[in-house]
Amino acid sequence: MAEAYIVGAVRTPVGRKKGGLSAVHPVDLAAYPLKELIDRTGVDPSAVDDVIMGCVMQFGPQSMDIARNAWLSAGLPETVAGVTIDRQCGSSQQSIHFAAQGVMSGTQDLVVAAGVESMSIVPMGSSITAALEKGMPFPFGEKWVERYGMQEISQFRGAELMAEKWGFSREDMDCYAYESHQRAAKAVANGYFRDQIVPVAGVEDDEGPRPDTTLEKMASLKLLREGGRITAATSSQISDGAGAILVASEQAVRDHNLTPRARIVTLALTGDDPVYMLTAPIPATKKALKRAGLSIGDIDVVEINEAFAPVPMAWMKELDADPDKTNPNGGAIALGHPLGGTGAILMAKLLHELERTGGRYGLQTMCEGGGQANVTIIERL
């Protein structure tokens, strides 16, 4: 099977809800990293075979195939097609998988994998709300209800179920969240993200980290659910952001004089309990490591999306993973989680951190709606 290489990775800053990126149209927001990716790699944009973009709320300003619209808004060739995909929070990690698979199959040579979400402009749940307002049923049919019953299916409940199952107290999760902010604040202050970010609307750095937060402040927050353990402090932030990755074949590397920065080692995907919803990174990681012939100890940097604190905490416990290698520069609790944009953003962070530290193997994973998870393992070159 042909190899697939990452030759470019760039992202926008991640903006807070109603922050510096909140007035940027999502099509334009996605256009920034696309244009920057082409400029940085120096590739002929007309040679790109496809643009695959993840976006969760494909509604209103994010509808009508935002991948195609963003590419054109970036001033790039009309001859290049684009497609928008939805695997919930893993949408743009899945776009990386599809791009790599196109290259590995030998049917494509240059593919852009990207993602975007403006949660300020298109709020989470917009597409569901619109359907409900028109009297359409919630997106679980009768057969689904026969299998799982009439019960709440939500990420918030899933997070609480995980905290209970793995025995994480509110205090445990507050400590994890505090460390996420401290790591992210240090990374921003030291400029670790500077090379991977293209400024947008005057915003040059991620807006989410709160270096002045304290455990006392976190302890004062209200619970999201009565009798629960999760608060806003131990949840990912609502955010705006986009990212783009260029995946190339060996032939494209030669033809366009590109520099491979990482080799995609393996791709894995699995499903788990849709009620718990957030647990699938655990079996998916085990599957990916086995396929790659690696152990968790071989992995130098992990980016696991901090949808809620119990997700990475349970993952580390089950995999016996090193906390120092896991989200070393903070995660979505501090840096934000712009849904469909997060997968591409995490890959940009993962690649740059491997390059900064000289690590060899990196692993990216994230929980997704429906109880799913993607895992991508890369090798820095």
From TrEMBL:
UniProt KW keywords: Acyltransferase, Transferase
Residue ranges occupied by any Thiolase N-terminal domain in the UniProt entry:
5-251
Query: CDD domains, per this entry?
Result: thiolase
Q: Which domain of life is it from?
A: Bacteria
Which molecular-function annotations from GO does this UniProt entry contain? acetyl-CoA C-acetyltransferase activity
Which EC class is the enzyme in?
transferase
Name the chain's protein.
Acetyl-CoA C-acetyltransferase
Q: Which organism is it from?
A: Herbidospora galbida
